[in-house]
Amino acid sequence: MSLKRTARGTLILLTLGVLLLLLLLLVNPVQPRQRPALLEMSVIAREADGSAWANARQGMEQAAADLHVELRFLYPSASNNAPEQCELLRREMESGASAILLFPTDRAALAETVQNAAGRAALITLETDMAAQGARGCAGADNTALGQALGAAALNGVPPDEAVLLLDSVPGDNGIRERMEAASALLEAENRTVLYCRPAEGESLAAALQNRLAGEPVRAVVAFEPSALERAAEETALLDDPPMLYGVGSTAAIAANLEQGRITSVVAQNAFSTGYLAVEAAARLARREPAEPLGQLPHFTVRRENMYEPDYQKLLFPVTR
User: Fold this and answer.
1) Which regions of 168-310 does DSSP assign to beta strands (E)?
2) What is the number of structural domains in the chain?
3) Beta pairing, strands 299-303 & 265-269
4) 34-84, pLDDT tens digit by residue?
5) Are residues 89 and 175 in the same domain?
6) Can you tell me the distance from the alpha carbon of 105 to that of 242, in angstroms, rounded to the nearest whole number?
7) Which residue of 45, 77, 176, 192 has the fewest C-beta atoms within 10 A of its own C-beta?
8) Backbone angles phi, psi at 300, to 5 degrees
9) Is 112 helix (H, G, I), strand (E, B) or coil?
10) How would you classify the pairing of strands 220-222 and 265-269?
11) Which residues, including other chains, have CB under 8 Å from residue 136's CB and lie 6 or more apart?
12) Spatial separation of the C-alpha atoms in residues 159 and 180, rounded to whole Å
């Protein structure tokens, strides 16, 4: 009899518990998490061709899918055209853009336009830090440290008093120049002869490099952005006795040339993560959500011997989910 009472009491308590839970749900039902409103974001490139930052674009597109963002990619008609970048930036502001990603060509030329845009939209830069001009953050590596790493890599292959040719491929005040200046200072301090290849007005980098390599011999060529490294790999591959080639980037073409030994080593950052973090930061700022400050991303020196190690594979061959 006592067991029956205990069982009946337990059943009553369970029933009351279920009824109480149902009552709570009726009074305060669980609300499904709503997706934020679709956010339109403009991406203003530095180059007319986006292949050199394809991995960063993959990261941007993954972040856009995760965060309910619609990306609008804008390319200048000619690479490294700061006035056209200014015009694209002004046009996006006039159309009411609330979030913008920018690959700056020249801080001085873009300063006023960036300052005006940053007062009206969440503006994040890539490659070149323009926080002093009003940008809300920069996604990328420390350019000075990256350039020093590239210079250190070249030191290993170039004996003292031998010549190293640096590709000055992006005119103006930008992160690419910061890399070149850091590498140059390190190489000169270690008694390497530093030469420069600067295309003349209307001259392509490929033509300038052909002319330069036909003159004074150099032991190594160093490129400071992916497009220049790809062009240099194409040109040096045509030579009977090509110089060693060092550079920055992690594109499919760069990975192929690294594997074939045409490129000695590269200094690379995780371009996929860079693109993802840039979109995430701009989206949070535009939506007035809490956001961690963008820190400088790490960079890594990759050679043919280690390019297929798991960590470096992620840099060269990112996989979206």
Assistant:
1) 193-197, 220-222, 244-248, 265-269, 299-303
2) 2
3) antiparallel
4) 678 999 999 999 999 988 999 999 999 999 999 999 999 999 999 999 999
5) no
6) 30
7) 77
8) -140, 145
9) helix
10) unpaired
11) 118, 122, 123, 124, 281, 282, 285
12) 20
The one-letter code for the residue type at 160 is P
Q: How many CB atoms lie within 10 A of CB 248?
A: 26
* Residue-wise DSSP of 7-70: HHHHHHHHHHHHHHHHHHHHHSPPPPPPPPPPEEEEEE-SSS-GGGGHHHHHHHHHHHHHHTEE
Q: For residue 84, what are the domain limits?
A: 39-141+271-297
Spatial separation of the C-alpha atoms in residues 243 and 121, rounded to whole Å: 46
Quote the distance between the C-alpha of residue 254 and its chain's center: 15
| Short-list 186, 256, 189, CA closest to 222 | 186
Eight-state DSSP code of residue 106: -
Look up residue 185 and give its two tokens. Answer: 């200072």
Go through the chain and tell me how many residues it has.
Answer: 321
Q: Chain-centre distance of CA 123, in angstroms?
A: 15
Q: Is residue 28 in some structural domain?
A: no
My answer on whether 265 and 289 are in the same domain is: no
Stretches where the chain sits below pLDDT 50 are: 1, 3, 29-32
Q: What is the pLDDT of residue 316?
A: 85
